[in-house]
Each structure stands twice: as structure tokens, then as C-alpha cells.
Design a protein that fits this description.
- The complex is a heterodimer of chains A (about 240) and B (about 375).
- Chain A has one domain (about 15-235): Thiamin diphosphate (ThDP)-binding fold, Pyr/PP domains (Rossmann fold, 3-Layer(aba) Sandwich).
- In chain A, about 40% of the residues lie in helices and about 20% in strands.
- Chain A is built from nine helices and nine strands.
- In chain A, helix 2 (about 60-70) runs parallel beside helix 4 (about 90-100).
- Chain A starts with 12 loop residues before the first helix and ends with a strand.
- In chain B, helix 3 runs parallel beside helix 5.
- In chain B, the strands form three sheets. A seven-stranded mixed β-sheet of chain B has the order 3-2-4-5-7-6-13, with helices on both faces. Chain B has a five-stranded mixed β-sheet with strand order 10-12-11-14-15, sandwiched between helices.
- Chain B has two domains: about 5-200, Thiamin diphosphate (ThDP)-binding fold, Pyr/PP domains (Rossmann fold), CATH 3.40.50; about 255-365, Rossmann fold (3-Layer(aba) Sandwich), CATH 3.40.50.
- The longest helix of chain B has 21 residues, at about 225-245.
- The termini of chain B are far apart.
- Chain B has about 375 residues and is α/β, with parallel strands linked by helices.
- The chains are: A alpha/beta (about 240), B alpha/beta (about 375).
- At the A-B interface, strand 1, strand 2, helix 2 and helix 4 of A face helix 3, helix 5 and strand 9 of B.
């Protein structure tokens, strides 16, 4: 980790996940062999915190970028770190195809059900009835369609080897999330196929709540809709 | 693999693929589109991953291909993509990111008639797209313009060199005729791909992790929240662009001498057709020659300005409704009138059509209807 003033809001899940990523790379001794791809979204500055070589991809294209890199540098740890707007909306095509080709990369997916960076607009993962800046009366099926379960879709694709949904709201969950990310990174190194680690996350600012309220809201509303646990593991 | 040259008869598109393998490219990422699909088809048939180790991947879209190029460029690899008009249109955001991060990467554009889906017949309506770009922000890309199958081959080598020398994307702007026609070509000897150590030495800026323990980490980002920092970056790139303009202009003169009265300016396939037209016109006693830009950016402004001083007028031949003509007009600095000749939408001029356009231009000039420097299309 670098000494960088934190740009994330208090209580934001991004910061916790960054720390896990940094710890795992260090524990694996992979500093010289990691190529990390950050998204457009609040995590656009991920490179400021974890001192490995980083590439900021354009909005949604991180999986394409990572696919090429892993093929050209097959012995490196290559992973993307993306938000729900980045991975499940503008970049759905690149996401599905990287997963389906079974690219030997890890994908970390921060699902906070909102566009955090641009100020709290509706995301493809926004829950039914949830209010955002662009669905101020709550998400409605006839106007906005349904939340996209991209992680569940990933399970169906033959290229994926490991698909899991985690959270970082409690110490126990943080431990599990760390184990999951480490497994995904090892899969990339062992060329087992694509790993997708979804982290069901909070965005207190976008949700217009305090960090405590946001955590509780996530437990009450997000977890029933996006249940935690492994969805697929062909490596074990 | 032998390292001798080979003389073969091939299509322009096939030569792009074979040249890439021989020039030691590390990878290709592309999506099928007519009239350039033979590039990926040839690579798939030749299986370079089994010989030179070159990666070949059919991407899910041109959006993906250009972002694959972007990622690869960030890590210091020599990679290229190939596409045609609508596909190149999709790549513009990625090109802007590549230029903004000062990355290497080669883009082969085999033009067809447009706009929209257009036709699959050859066109030169993507001059603006290549030279001025559709990506956002202050940036340039080097644009090479081959006019033969041999030059398609040579441009792959030249682009590989220029893209690392200047750390900017290089576009090879070709067209459907050059892509599809067969000509005799001398392929270069095999050049080995660079080793990881060579890449690390050549590209200390690259984000590939090599040597991280002994250096600060590298990152590629185009985001600058502080406008002053962004302006500083732009000015640094602009200074580089001015240097490229000073050093990399390339052009060819055809039958131009001290007595030349009229000039044709044409690139790519139009220059080949114009050569025939010039031969016919010279036989008829006209003092006409051609200037062919081999680089469209940087553009050969200086020589056009010098020639404009002493000639009567210029005919700009291109297979579109007139795009390069505006750069030619600027280059004349008002010293010569520039007229347009060309077909569009997938139609291609015959030498006789150029001869006819030339004659009406000469009549206009002789009638003295247009004062020197009047801009007329
Ligand atoms: C092509 C393009 N379109 C739109 C944007 C504006 N934009 C920046 S971040 C973002 C949404 C990010 O949301 P998400 O991926 O969920 O990340 P979060 O900030 O929530 O972590 C958008 C729409 C952009 N930068 N580029
Ligand atoms: S806006 Fe949301 S996602 Fe972004 S830093 Fe703040 S809490 Fe985190
Ligand atoms: Mg989000």
C-alpha cells in the first residue's frame, strides 16, 4: 500500500477491497509479476494505493485490455477491478466475452448498485424500488427493466472456473472475501480460466446514508437479492 | 525459420499478415469486416503462435480490439489491429486513450465507401477519420499511406519503428483496392520478437511489472483532475508532434520537373490511377506531375507550398467527395487554386475521368476566371 490521502468516502467498500488486494499480492510475492487494470468509476484511482503496475482502462473495457495482456504475458498475474456500471453495463460485451473465452484473469466486481463516481445514478444492478438520481421515484420494471445478475450469468459460461459473491461488511466476511480473491489470483497464475469475485458493496454517498445505515441497508436489501457464497468452483 | 527474403504474389491484406509475422509483431487483435478480413484469415492459417510466438485473437468487436491494443501497448508489446471504415469508427475512443497515454500500436485501416454501413467497395472517405481522428482531445496519430502491395508490407516495418520511436499510435491508411489486389512483393527476412529484457530496456515506462523492486511503479492514466497538469501534458505532447512534423514527412514526386505547370496531389490507390492519367496527359503535351504524400500526418506542407509558388493549379485526386483537398489548400498558403477530382461511395476513378477533370481545370485556369488562390471544388 502507498501513503496516499484516501479519496474514497468514509465507509466505502472500495478502500477495504484495495487493502485485501494489496495484502494478497504481497503475501503471494507477486509485486513484480502483477499487471492490474482499474476501471472508470470511483476506483479509477486504485493505482494510487497499491504499488504494482496499473493500467486505467476506458469505461467498461478492462476485460478486453486484460485479455490481451494475459495472452501476451501468460506468466503474470492479471486482474481487473471494476464497478457495476463499468462491468455490467457499458462493458457487458467485453465482460461476457472475456469470461466466455476463459481468459486466465481474475475479475473483481464491486457491486454497489449505483454509479458512485458520477453522483448516484441508476446502475444495471440497482434494486427494484431503489431511488437514485435518474430513477428518483424508485426503479420500476416498466421504465427501467430489471437488475442484471451478471455474476449468475457468468456461472453459465464454460470459460469461468470460479464465480463467487462476497462482502466486506464484517470481519468474518472480510476474511472470506480475502480467501476468495486469493483463490481467483491463484487461478490466474495456474491458468485455470476466468474467476469472477463479486463484492456486494455499499456506497453511502450515492445511497444518501451514513456508513452505518448503508451497511444495514445492504444487509437488509442487497444480501437477499444478491446472496453471498460460491456460485461455481471447478478448481477444487 | 529461414531469414531470407521471399518474393511472392499476394493480396495486400495477406501481405499485412505475413509482414507482421516477419517484422516480429507480438500480437494481433481484430474483428472481421470486408474488405480486410484476409488479414485475420491469413494469420489464423499461418499459426504464428507456433513459430514466432505471436498472439492472434479474434475479438468480440472493434471496441474490444482497440482496447486489447491499448492494454498490450501499455505493457510495451508490439501489436496491431486491422479493420475497415465502420470498425475504425468504433475504435476512436480507444485511439484517444492510446494517444493520451503515448502508447505504441499499429492500426491498419482498409477504407471502403461510406457513410454508415456504406458499401464494401473501396473508398478514401476516411481521410478525416485517420488524419483528424474522431477521438476526443488534443492528439495526433502518424498516418502512413501506401500505394502498392509492396508498400503495404514496408509500412508494417516502418510503423513498428515509428510507433516506438515516437510513442504514438500509427495508422496505415489503405483502401479496398490495395487490400484486395494482388501484386508481386518481396517479403522481409524474419526478425525475432523482442525478449522481455529487450522490452524492459526499450520501454522503461511500460506497465509490465518488470524490475518493480528497483523502481517506482508505473501507471497508465489519462485522467487529470487538475487542468493545469492536463495542459502541461498536452503541451508536452504538442511539442513532440511539432518534432514529428519536422522529421517524419515523407512524399514522392512523379514526373515533376522545372517546367511543371500543373500538379496532381493524390495518395494511395488514387496516386496509382493518377500516374496513368499523367502519362496520358504528358503524351498530349501537358506539363503535369504528381506529388504523392506517403505520410498524411505529418502532411508534406512545405513542398506543396514551394511547388504552389510556380505552378498554375492543383488537381487533388481522392476517392471521396473531397477531404485531403482541404489540407492541400492550406498547404498552398493561397498561392495556387486547388480543384477536386474523384468518385465516392465505393466507385473508383478511371484514368480517363481524371484526364477529363484535368482538362476542365486547365480550361478554367486559362479562362482566368479564377484569381490566383481562389478555392474552387
Ligand atoms: C464513455 C464514458 N461514458 C460515461 C462516463 C462517465 N462515467 C464515469 S464513472 C461512471 C459510472 C461508474 O459507476 P460504477 O462502474 O458502478 O463505479 P462506482 O463509481 O460505483 O464504483 C460513468 C457513467 C465515462 N467516463 N466514459
Ligand atoms: S461515491 Fe460511493 S463508491 Fe464512490 S467513494 Fe463514495 S461511497 Fe465509495
Ligand atoms: Mg457502482
Amino acid at each position: 500500500m502507498n501513503e496516499t490521502p484516501m479519496h474514497y468516502c468514509p465507509g466505502c467498500s472500495h478502500g477495504v477491497v484495495h487493502k485485501l488486494v494489496a495484502e494478497i499480492i504481497e503475501e503471494m510475492g507477486m509485486e513484480e509479476d502483477t499487471i492490474a487494470i482499474c476501471p472508470v468509476g470511483c476506483a479509477v484511482f486504485a493505482y494510487r494505493y497499491v504499488d504494482v503496475d496499473w493500467i486505467e482502462a476506458s469505461h467498461g473495457r478492462a476485460p478486453a485490455c486484460a485479455s490481451a495482456i494475459k495472452r501476451l504475458w501468460p506468466n503474470k498475474l492479471v486482474f481487473t477491478y471494476q464497478g457495476d456500471g463499468d462491468m455490467a453495463c457499458i462493458g457487458t460485451g467485453e465482460t461476457i466475452h472475456a469470461l466466455n473465452r476463459g481468459e486466465n484473469i481474475a475479475m473483481i466486481f464491486i457491486n454497489n448498485a449505483i454509479y458512485g463516481m458520477t453522483g448516484g445514478q441508476m446502475a444495471p444492478t440497482t434494486l427494484m424500488g431503489m431511488k437514485t438520481a435518474t430513477c428518483p421515484y424508485g426503479r420500476q420494471a416498466d421504465l427501467h427493466g430489471y437488475p442484471l445478475h451478471i455474476t449468475d450469468l457468468a456461472v453459465q459460461l464454460e470459460g469461468t472456473c470460479y464465480v463467487t459473491r462476497q462482502a466486506v461488511n464484517t470481519v468474518a466476511n472480510i476474511r472470506k472475501a480475502k480467501k476468495a480473491i486469493r483463490q481467483a489470483f491463484e487461478n490466474s497464475m495456474n491458468k485455470k480460466g476466468t474467476s469472477l469475485v463479486e463484492i456486494v458493496s455499499t456506497c453511502a454517498s450515492g445511497w444518501k446514508m451514513t456508513p452505518e445505515q448503508a451497511n444495514q441497508w445492504m444487509v437488509d436489501n442487497m444480501f437477499p437479492y444478491y446472496p453471498l457464497g460460491d456460485l461455481k468452483n471447478t478448481v477444487e | 525459420m529461414d531469414n531470407k527474403k521471399d518474393i511472392v504474389l499476394l493480396k495486400g491484406n495477406e501481405v499485412i499478415a505475413k509482414a507482421a509475422i516477419r517484422y516480429g509483431y507480438d500480437g494481433f487483435f481484430g474483428y472481421p469486416i470486408t474488405p480486410q478480413s484476409e488479414v485475420l484469415e491469413t494469420l489464423a492459417a499461418d499459426k504464428p503462435w507456433e513459430t514466432t510466438g505471436m498472439v492472434v485473437l479474434q475479438a468480440e468487436s472493434e471496441l474490444a480490439s482497440i482496447n486489447m491494443l491499448y492494454g498490450a501497448g501499455c505493457t510495451g508489446k508490439l501489436v496491431f489491429t486491422s479493420s475497415s471504415s465502420p470498425g475504425i469508427a468504433l475504435m476512436q475512443e480507444g485511439l484517444s486513450y492510446m494517444a493520451g497515454n503515448e502508447l505504441p500500436g499499429v492500426i491498419v485501416s482498409v477504407g471502403r465507401g461510406g457513410p454508415g454501413l456504406g458499401t464494401i467497395q473501396p473508398g478514401q472517405a476516411d481521410y478525416y477519420q485517420a488524419v483528424y481522428g474522431g477521438g476526443n482531445g488534443d492528439y495526433n496519430t502518424i498516418v502512413l499511406a501506401p500505394n502498392s502491395v509492396q508498400e503495404m508490407c514496408d509500412c508494417m516495418g516502418k510503423a513498428a519503428e515509428l510507433t516506438f520511436k515516437w510513442r504514438m499510435p500509427v495508422i496505415i491508411l489503405s483502401d479496398g483496392v490495395l487490400g484486395q489486389m494482388m501484386e508481386k512483393v518481396e517479403l522481409p527476412p524474419y526478425r525475432p520478437r523482442r525478449t522481455d529484457e529487450e522490452i524492459a530496456k526499450q520501454c522503461p515506462w511500460a506497465t509490465n511489472g518488470i524490475g518493480l523492486k528497483n523502481r517506482k511503479y508505473n501507471f497508465m492514466s489519462t485522467l487529470e483532475l487538475d487542468p493545469q497538469v492536463m495542459e502541461d501534458r498536452n503541451q508536452k505532447m504538442a511539442a513532440k508532434y511539432r518534432q514529428v512534423e519536422a522529421e517524419e514527412v515523407d512524399y514522392e514526386l512523379y514526373r515533376v520537373d522545372d517546367d511543371t505547370e500543373y500538379l496532381i496531389v493524390a495518395y494511395g490507390i488514387s496516386s496509382r490511377i493518377s500516374m496513368k492519367a499523367i502519362d496520358l496527359l504528358q503524351e498530349a503535351g501537358m506539363k503535369v506531375g504528381m506529388l504523392r504524400p506517403k505520410t498524411l500526418w505529418p502532411f508534406p506542407n512545405k513542398i506543396i507550398s514551394q511547388l504552389s509558388e510556380r505552378i498554375k493549379s492543383i488537381l487533388c485526386v481522392e476517392q471521396c467527395e473531397g477531404q485531403m483537398i482541404n489540407d492541400v489548400r492550406l498547404a498552398t498558403e493561397g498561392q495556387a487554386t486547388v480543384f477536386h477530382s474523384g468518385r465516392s461511395g465505393g466507385m473508383v476513378s478511371s484514368p480517363m475521368e481524371i484526364v477529363e477533370d484535368f482538362k476542365s481545370m486547365a480550361r478554367e485556369r486559362m479562362s482566368n476566371k479564377w484569381p490566383k488562390g481562389y478555392w474552387m471544388k
